[in-house]
Amino acid sequence: MSRRNDSSQMRESIQHDHNEDRKEDRKVEHKEDRKVEHKEDRKEDRKVDRKEDRNEDRKVEHREEHGREREPNDINGSKPNICSSCSERISCSSGPLISYDTGPSSSSRHSDTGPSSSSRHSDTGASSSSRHSDTGASSSSRHSDTGPSSSSRHSDTGASSSGLSDSGHSSSGPDHSNRSSSSSRPSDIGPPFSGPDNSTQSSSSSRTFSPGPSSSRPSDTEERQDEGSSSSCCSLEDLKRLPQCQSKPGPLTPSRTHTILIDVNFLNLEGSLMAKEGRDVWQSDFVKMPCSDSSVVKAGAYFKGPEVRWNGISKQLKGLADKREVNVDHVQAAILKYNPSYKDKWSFDALATFVRRVPKAENYFSTLFPKIAKLALELPKNLKKAIPMLKNGRPASITLSQEQIACLLANAFFCTFPHRNATHPNAEYCNYPSINFNSLFENWSDRKKEKLRAIMHYFKVMTDEKKRPRGLVTFERRLLSGHDVPDWRRCKDKMQKLHVTSGGTIETEGTGMLQVDFACKMIGGGVLNTGLVQEEILFLMNPELILSRLFTEKLEDNECLIVTGSQQFSRYSGYGDTFEWAGPHEDDLPRDEWRRLQRQILAIDAQHYKHRREQYDMSKVQRELNKAYCGFRGHGPNIPDIATGKWGCGAFNGDPQLKAVIQLMAAAKAERGLAFFTFKDEELKEDLQKLHHLLVMEGTTVGKLFELLENFCGAQHGSGSSYSGGLFDFIKRKLRPKRSLL
Fold it and tell me: φ, ψ for residue 294 (rounded to 5)?
């Protein structure tokens, strides 16, 4: 019995030892497992920390290198911070976080703000303190994979509250980015914009848009991210406009270079307009007026002896003004009475056909002709001071009232201006555009019909005492002198803001900006003949611009004309042969302290190339750069941005890509943003957006672009075949030779 018990006890002891050994083994195994797990956790933590450190280093480097530059995304001129190495905007302690062109999401990839500030890469909503919680409920986890995140850096929802949806409208979701809201609205035209913020930004004295040069080239991954991002372009609403950004012009005061044709003292005291007293000057530096006593005609078939020409003009015009109704034959007879040498040269068939074909319900012209004649007769009363010519090489300006402009244009309608009809090369005014309307009245065409509809509507308004506007308009000739010409090769300025759209027009969507007139050297082009492209249409919608032809000499390569305060009287549709007058326009723009409508039109003439290849010459490129800069260059700190487009293309045979780059460079030097209208050219719109994005991301300077233009022009005229990929592609390949962004 005792042996059996001993044996049993021995077995139990052995079993107990075995169990203890198994427990100890499990403990060891568990400890080893935990060691492995902790080792893996530490490795993962180190990876995350290194990634965070790199992000922090990039932000620190960006602040140190670029002084926390901020882009003026609103009228007040504030700027975002942009990480030059990863193409994203970053948050700096000096101001609020703003979104950039990273897609639909408005949350910045480098944001350290937002509701979940403890999470750097959270894709989750709810937060706990564990880094690697196994429960999946940790929303402060750095790499949690659950829950919808409102502050995620890499949100995949695309429903950001401060961005724009694909339709171009702001999404209705709440803002989760801890940013104050602004009144920025999406553009009414063009592509949806996924960039500019709705935040209130701090202002900056600098307007440079570029993030500056990157300390290192982007990685392949970052280049692929850039390829997928939409653009660095801004919303149309982010560009500066009148009247919000206008500096006060100061008191209206005449000077040696500024002629004012109204009595300023009377305006200030009585609040009404009256002609400035002065004397007539009959010489080449001044307009030779029809009512001048020095305008004398010799004896001939229509005059018994030497006679002051205005006597014959006023007699004929008074005969028309006294009639209740006047037909085209009466108008023709009166004009030829005081222009007898053109009796067999001038035709009035376009005017006659126009009046005959317009439906009776719209045909008010027989009663309008006498009113225009009466307006023309008021010339001696309305203009008493000599009008200087805006001659080349002399920067100067002229300010006059809208009533004075109408009176002068009424005289142009009746062809009363002396010495302005001859067109031969040695004529006295061969260097000036024509002003008398005789060319508009001849050679009937559908184009002439639509032009006359616009002109007649203007006179209908200006002969109505109740509707006649009583403001002022300024015509200013500007000159880019030698010491003001930039050294383009050494220019360090970077790209400004850009909005590109294939829809809309300069004069409508560009309201309040400096609107570019794609001008001819002879201002107004073919407005009084058959021309009907951008400049002519602009002059027909704003007929007061036609008066610039009276006193503006042909523009030289370093000159431009700026008109402030002209009124738009009509609407239109179409272009060229499809152009149609579309009815009256009610111009409700506010007026400045000088009673000028807050509209600025810039006339700059591009070069006309017979052969397209001619323009790929650096002397011609520099001419266009200087011409654009002459017009874009501002005077004062708070000026509107620029509305432009395919300047010098079309009939002038310019390369749209080259002209776009030239205007980007001139605007960068002038520190002004651009609204670029491609006029339904979708391909140019998309390519220009991508090019601008590349230039911004690379911190490309104007000087660098000038160097690339030199290389491109050299390639066009090299010994081998010319580069066929286009300028945009050439720039892209030079800036990022590894891959294509366009």
Answer: -85, -10
Task: Report the C-alpha gap between 410 and 388 in whole angstroms.
Answer: 19
Q: 């692929």: which residue's tokens?
A: 224
517 annotated active-site = yes
Angle CA 195–199–201, to nearest 5: 105
Q: Got the DSSP string for 682-719? A: HHHHHHHHHHHHHHHHTT-BHHHHHHHHHHHHHHHTSS
What 3-state class would DSSP assign to 92?
A: coil
Q: How far apart are CA 669 and CA 232, in angstroms?
A: 19
CB of 514 closer than 8 Å to CB of 643: yes
Q: Is 535 a catalytic residue?
A: yes
Catalytic residue among 536, 559, 624, 671: 536
- pLDDT (tens digit per residue) in 144-178: 344 433 333 333 333 333 333 333 333 333 343 33
The per-residue pLDDT for 297 is: 86
Torsion of CA 564, 567, 571, 574, to 10 degrees: -30
Q: Which residues share a beta bridge with 264?
A: none
Q: Per the structure block, which two tokens stand in for 279?
A: 């004397």
Three-class secondary structure of residue 546 per DSSP: helix
Q: Which of 510, 475, 458, 509 is nearest to 596 (CA)?
A: 475
Judged by phi (left if over 0) then psi (alpha if -120 to 50, else beta), residue 524 lies in: left
- Block means of pLDDT (10 residues each) for the chain, length 742 residues? 58 67 66 65 65 62 48 39 39 34 39 39 39 40 39 38 37 37 37 34 40 42 48 92 84 96 94 95 96 86 75 97 97 96 96 95 95 98 97 97 98 97 91 98 97 98 94 98 96 98 96 97 97 97 98 98 98 95 96 96 97 95 98 89 96 96 98 97 97 96 98 82 82 80 49
Question: Is residue 486 within 8 Å of 632, Cβ to Cβ?
Answer: no
Catalytic residue among 238, 263, 450, 517: 517
Residue type, 531: G
Long-range contacts from 52-60, C-beta under 8 angstroms, 24+ separation: 52/120, 55/110, 55/120, 58/83, 58/85, 58/86, 58/90, 58/110, 59/83, 59/90, 59/91, 59/92, 59/110
Name the maximum alpha-carbon separation found in the chain: 170
> What's the whole-model pTM score?
0.71
Give residue limits of the domains in the chain: 258-735
Torsion angle (degrees, nearest 10) of CA 409, 412, 414, 419? 150
Residue keyed to tokens 């592509």: 191
HEC string of 217-251 equals CCCHHHHHHHHHCCCCCCCHHHCCCCCCCCCCCCC
Q: What share of the chain is helix, strand, coil (3-state, %, to 5)?
A: 35, 10, 50
CA distances from 498 to 193, 197, 323, 335, 692 (A): 12, 15, 56, 50, 8
The residue annotated as part of the active site, out of 403, 535, 544, 698, is: 535
Residue 151's pLDDT is 38
Give yes or no for a contact between 74 and 57, defined as CB atoms under 8 angstroms apart: no
Report how far residue 565's alpha carbon sits from residue 510's, in angstroms, rounded to the nearest whole number: 15
Residue 491 corresponds to which tokens in the numbers above? 């220019």
Q: What is the pLDDT of residues 66-110, one digit of tens each?
A: 443 433 333 333 344 444 334 333 333 333 333 333 343 333 334
Is position 25 annotated as part of the catalytic site?
no
